[in-house]
Write a structure and sequence with these properties.
The protein is an alpha/beta fold. The chain has one domain: Vaccinia Virus protein VP39 (Rossmann fold), CATH 3.40.50.150. Helix content is 27%, strand content 30%. Strand 1, helix 3 and strand 2 form a beta-alpha-beta unit. The protein is globular, with a radius of gyration of 16 Å. The model has no long low-confidence stretch (mean pLDDT 95).
């Protein structure tokens, strides 16, 4: 279910899969960083990449879905913003990004089974430059106990500590390692508290 065909079909099934707004944890964790080079992993319809580029980042926006990338490219932005984004059709589980290449690597809500997820996260960590930032955000396992729709596959979920455990302690400073609360609405219209796993680390 995690290949390009799955994601292309999902994007074709509706006019917009995501809100069009940048992920709140990206905004909260990155706003104070000096812009440089960024890798946006699983960029989807492009909101995070565009937000970064608007703030001066040079962004490589990668996704496994060609349909998602077509939509991202179609978003109307200024010439300067467009020039700062490279849209990349790739599967980063199948092939690693270049090592020590980015000042920021952001992966927002990348949910895979444990083995390919850990492989991917280690590769992403290796692609961060010295003094660069790794930001990984995901749905916390506790969300499975709420009424918010989540795939009934516990192996897809992880904590910030799970991500931190993949990093070599001598090479990283953990800046944020939390389960962060936020409110959302379930299919019945009820306000529900859910949790996001947020890991922000700086490479030494």
């Amino acid at each position: 279910m995690f290949d390009g065909t799955f994601w292309d079909e999902l994007y074709r099934s509706r006019s917009a899969v995501w809100s069009g707004n940048p992920n709140i944890h990206l905004v909260n964790e990155v706003s104070d960083l000096t812009p440089g080079s960024a890798l946006d992993v699983g960029c989807g319809e492009g909101a995070d990449a565009i937000w970064l580029a608007e703030r001066g980042w040079r962004v490589t926006a990668a996704d496994i879905s060609s349909v998602a990338l077509e939509r991202a490219r179609a978003v109307v932005v200024s010439v300067d913003v467009a020039r700062r984004i490279d849209w990349l059709h790739t599967d980063l589980v199948a092939g690693a990004p270049p090592s020590a290449s980015y000042d920021l690597v952001s992966a927002q809500f990348m949910h895979l089974p444990r083995a390919p997820r850990e492989l991917l996260f280690r590769r992403l960590a290796a692609s961060v430059k010295p003094q660069g930032t790794l930001l990984i955000v995901g749905h916390h396992p506790s969300d499975l106990q709420t009424t918010v729709p989540r795939p009934p596959k516990p192996e897809l979920f992880y904590t910030a500590a799970d991500v931190a455990a993949l990093l070599e302690p001598n090479n990283w400073d953990i800046i944020v390692e939390v389960s962060r609360e936020r409110s959302t609405t379930d299919p019945a219209g009820r306000i529900v508290t859910i949790h996001d796993a947020v890991l922000r680390a700086r490479r030494r």
